[in-house]
């Protein structure tokens, strides 16, 4: 049986289906894909993610592609340039000339032509410059991409270590609070038993409150540092990022050969500068080529149509063709070319001094980063031993306090020493690793 209501509902469903489909697709696109979130993000995974998703790197890759297309466009001028044009013209009033006292009209009412033209560059300094510098420009674009990747790797690595340092401070703070709560309980019990006065448990209360405040500060700082790391990685803002680390593995990675010598040619900034200098040498040649003539060949083939009747316009054609060449040589330009050559030479000389300045800066940066690494390494080795000593001292004094041999002031001092030693140890570890990255960058050992 025919049901108009049911038919109407089916029609509405068919009309709404595309709208619902588009809505689902739009929502799916707004949500970050599963592969954009890291599982168990170690340092290697974080760096790899940043190299793939960081906007700065993607912009550099886009610039590299743009540069390649520009080069292709410049080199295309070496190929024949072929063109086609067609036109039609309706002469309303024909041109009239008076000859022997008689007015005579020239031309026809309808004209049309098909034009095939072509040019070929035989020599031109612009296309010669494009061909001679194409490989260097591509190298420069690739080096710019590498420089951006290196910056991202260094910044992400340091941010990763900074997050780890803050996470360790939070862990130390949480353990301190547990220990201080136990210490407060002991101090209160001794006060209630009449063994100690009330200053002991008040000191414990103050230390516990300070520890909680410090923990809260570090927790808030961790939120900021995690967001900074996400930004440097190009990570989704709302995506979770609980980094994974192995302290023992990180301790094994602090070693660095400090006897290495600096090689300027290995540094990406030096490579970029040398490439820029080579391109400037090409600009000097380009200025000299201003004294060389240019030569171009050309040719054309025309199909002309003329008739007073439009319907018969294309019944008869009148072809026309020619070939030729253009030789151009600027004789005098008011010493413009000489001035341009001198300008490019001075620019090249300026780049030579820039290279020397860069060498000095790279040497200074290497010395600074190496000194920072050595000092951080020495501090790390010293603080590593201090942690065990401070823990041993605290345990002994805590037992002596419970036995009534020591005052609670000694316990607070030992507690402070232990907390400081642990925090300084983890900070020193991450500072050593961060300074190692700086040394490797100064040596040009970080390459992508």
UniProtKB/TrEMBL annotation:
GO terms for molecular function: efflux transmembrane transporter activity; porin activity. Keywords: Cell outer membrane, Membrane, Signal, Transmembrane, Transmembrane beta strand, Transport. The keyword Glycoprotein does not apply. Pfam families: OEP (PF02321). It is found in: Cell outer membrane. Residues 1-28 form the signal peptide. The keyword Nucleotide-binding does not apply. Belongs to the outer membrane factor (OMF) (TC 1.B.17) family. This is TolC family protein.
């Amino acid at each position: 049986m025919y049901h108009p209501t049911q038919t109407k509902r089916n029609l509405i469903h068919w009309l709404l289906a595309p709208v619902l489909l588009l809505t689902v697709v739009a929502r799916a696109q707004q949500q970050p894909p599963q592969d954009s979130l890291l599982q168990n993000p170690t340092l290697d995974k974080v760096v790899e993610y940043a190299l793939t998703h960081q906007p700065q790197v993607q912009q550099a890759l886009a610039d590299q592609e743009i540069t390649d297309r520009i080069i292709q466009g410049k080199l295309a001028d070496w190929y024949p340039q072929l063109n086609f044009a067609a036109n039609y013209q309706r002469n309303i009033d024909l041109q009239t000339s008076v000859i022997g006292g008689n007015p005579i009209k020239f031309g026809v009412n309808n004209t049309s032509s098909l034009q095939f033209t072509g040019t070929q560059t035989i020599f031109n300094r612009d296309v010669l410059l494009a061909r001679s510098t194409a490989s260097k420009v591509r190298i420069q674009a690739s080096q710019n991409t590498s420089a951006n990747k290196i910056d991202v790797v260094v910044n992400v690595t340091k941010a990763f270590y900074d997050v780890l340092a803050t996470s360790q401070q939070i862990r130390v703070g949480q353990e301190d609070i547990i220990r201080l709560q136990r210490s407060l309980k002991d101090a209160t019990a001794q006060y209630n038993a009449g063994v100690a006065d009330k200053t002991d448990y008040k000191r414990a209360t103050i230390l516990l409150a300070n520890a909680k405040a410090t923990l809260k500060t570090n927790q808030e700082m961790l939120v900021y540092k995690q967001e900074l790391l996400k930004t440097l990685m190009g990570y989704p803002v709302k995506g979770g990022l609980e980094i994974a680390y192995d302290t023992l593995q990180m301790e094994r990675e602090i070693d660095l050969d400090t006897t290495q010598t600096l090689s300027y040619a290995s540094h990406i900034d030096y490579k970029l500068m040398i490439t820029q200098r080579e391109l400037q040498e090409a600009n000097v040649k380009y200025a000299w080529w201003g004294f060389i003539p240019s030569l171009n060949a050309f040719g054309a083939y025309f199909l002309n149509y003329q008739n007073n009747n439009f319907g018969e316009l294309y019944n008869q054609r009148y072809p026309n063709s020619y070939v030729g060449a253009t030789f151009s040589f600027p004789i005098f330009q008011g010493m413009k070319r000489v001035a341009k050559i001198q300008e490019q030479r001075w620019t090249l000389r300026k780049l030579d001094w820039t290279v020397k300045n860069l060498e000095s800066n790279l040497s200074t940066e290497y010395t600074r980063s190496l000194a920072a690494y050595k000092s951080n390494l020495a501090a790390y080795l010293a603080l590593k031993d201090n942690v065990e000593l401070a823990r041993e001292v605290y345990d002994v004094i805590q037992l002596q306090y419970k036995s009534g041999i020591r005052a609670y002031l000694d316990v607070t001092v030992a507690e402070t020493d232990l907390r400081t030693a642990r925090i300084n140890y983890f900070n020193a570890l991450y500072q050593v690793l961060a300074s190692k990255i700086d040394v490797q960058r100064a040596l040009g050992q970080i390459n992508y």
